[in-house]
Design brief:
Largest sheet: 2 strands, antiparallel
Main location: membrane
CATH class of the largest domain: Mainly Alpha
Family: Belongs to the major facilitator superfamily. Bcr/CmlA family.
Order of helices and strands: EEHHHHHHHHHHHHHHH
Strand order of the largest sheet: 1-2
Structural class: mainly alpha
CATH topology of the largest domain: Growth Hormone, Chain: A
CATH architecture of the largest domain: Up-down Bundle
Membrane topology: Multi-pass membrane protein
GO cellular component, one term: plasma membrane
CATH superfamily of the largest domain: MFS general substrate transporter like domains
Radius of gyration: 22 Å
Protein name: Bcr/CflA family efflux MFS transporter
Helix content: over 70%
């Protein structure tokens, strides 16, 4: 296997006017980018072949999925954990909350760090922390140790999603950026829904501790992939120097952008609505509706179809010229309508089908929304892509970690609390879109 190749965006001295033009070649099986004065492209990824893009999609997809799998793989084991440790459902949900808070805080550190030192080092360091924490969780003697290691696991998993998103922004812009981000959005939207499916199957032949050993193995594989396959997409000349002023300038560029602030919080609200379902679903469907672990996993598998449909249709619409802000305008209304449907049908005594049908449509609307959020947030922030991606991730998981446990506090004896949290996040998203982002003021995407 070929060794990793570092991307170099600096043209030879005799072609200074082509300092950001590239041609693409192969070194073994690893795509490398080298200067070529005969090619004039605005972004280095524009010359990637379909095969080369597949390499990036697979590796960066695996990195993106690490966080959601870390958070959700053990959801089907919640009732088992409750019985073994003899604690309330709310305490078990706090281990999920701690993971998401760690994930959000970790991204705030890893994102700016990757803008400063490059993308590979943060990936290797943070994922190594994740691996060690997975081993600790597997060996935890009580719920307190498990909660502590889950917090560290979230922190260590933070690098995958944020750095993968930043690497895509390093390589692409305009419509190609939409296409590549849609692939990552598919993974980030699908992984939280598929992880419990896989977790439920793992519980057929291992206990809950085995799930964390599987996560440790996944982390080890990711480390190997980063070491052998991931190229450095941020050359030394484009890294930010030391000093708080530089960090401050990056955050100032983000938070002075009304569009970025609005869509970032909308993304966090949408993710919170999804996690209201994820954090309560084990108790709701296994405790209230009587599902076993495998039926529970099948429910997630069906809902994953909604995520795929939403992400793929949304990215197709954007590539055909539909503004992502207008897609969000439709999906936020759909999110609110489905949340209201869940509550009304639950009060009316509609039972299981009164919950699962509008829930499927709610999750589909989330799938429509995720790629639009990433595109709008990153399109104008290539110079601070790592920091921008970290803020997106921190808001997603931070808000979800703080707000989704409200469902557990309200109780999971019915679908009403889940629907109430979903509806609240949708209302906030609608207000942010029309009064902060203001869709008519968002410029069209470049080609």
């Amino acid at each position: 296997m070929a060794r990793p190749v570092v991307l170099d965006r600096c043209a030879p001295p005799h072609t200074p006017h082509l300092s950001r033009t590239f041609a693409l070649t192969y070194t073994g099986s690893i795509p490398a980018i080298t200067p070529d004065s005969a090619v004039n492209h605005a972004h280095p990824g524009d010359r990637l072949s379909a095969r080369q893009r597949l390499v990036y999609i697979l590796v960066l997809g695996a990195l993106t999925a690490l966080g959601p799998f870390t958070i959700d793989l053990y959801l089907p084991a919640f009732p088992v954990l409750q019985d073994e440790f003899n604690v309330s459902p709310a305490i078990i949900q706090l281990t999920l909350t701690g993971t998401m808070i760690g994930f959000g805080l970790g991204q705030l550190i890893v994102g700016p760090w990757s803008d400063k030192v490059g993308r590979r080092l943060p990936l290797l360091a943070a994922t190594s922390v994740h691996l060690v924490a997975c081993v600790g969780a597997a060996l935890s003697p009580d719920i307190y140790w498990l909660g502590a290691f889950r917090l560290i696991m979230g922190f260590g998993a933070a690098a995958g999603g944020v750095v993968a998103m930043a690497m895509v922004r390093d390589l692409f812009g305009g419509r190609p950026l939409v296409k590549m981000l849609s692939r990552l959005a598919l993974v980030s939207g699908l992984a939280p829904v598929l992880a419990p499916v896989i977790g439920s199957q793992l519980l057929l032949f291992m206990d809950w501790r085995g799930i964390f050993w599987v996560l440790a193995l996944y982390g080890a594989v990711v480390i190997v992939c980063v070491a052998l396959l991931i190229v450095e997409t941020l050359p030394r000349g484009e890294r930010h120097g030391d000093g708080h002023s530089t960090v401050g300038q990056r955050y100032r560029a983000l938070f002075s952008d009304r569009t970025f602030v609005g869509v970032a919080i909308i993304g966090g609200m949408t993710f919170t609505g999804l996690f209201a379902y994820l954090s309560s679903s084990s108790f709701l469907f296994q405790g209230v509706y009587g599902f076993d672990a495998q039926q529970y996993g099948l429910l997630f598998a069906v809902n994953s179809i909604g995520v795929v449909l939403g992400v793929q249709t949304s990215s197709l619409l954007m590539r055909r010229g539909v503004g992502p802000q207008w897609i969000i305008a439709c999906t936020t209304i759909a999110l609110l309508a489905m949340a209201i449907a869940i509550m009304v049908l639950d009060i009316a005594g509609a039972g299981l089908w009164g919950t699962v049908l509008p829930l499927f449509l709610f999750i589909t609307a989330c799938g429509f929304t995720f790629p639009c959020i990433q595109v709008l947030a990153l399109a104008n922030h290539g110079k601070e892509a790592g920091t921008a991606a970290s803020v997106l991730g921190a808001l997603n998981f931070g808000l979800a970690g703080v707000l989704s446990p409200i469902v557990g506090v309200l109780g999971v004896s019915s679908a009403l609390p889940m629907g109430a949290v979903m509806g609240t996040t949708a209302v906030i998203s609608i207000l942010l879109l029309w009064f902060v982002v203001r869709p008519r003021s968002v410029p069209a995407l470049s080609h």
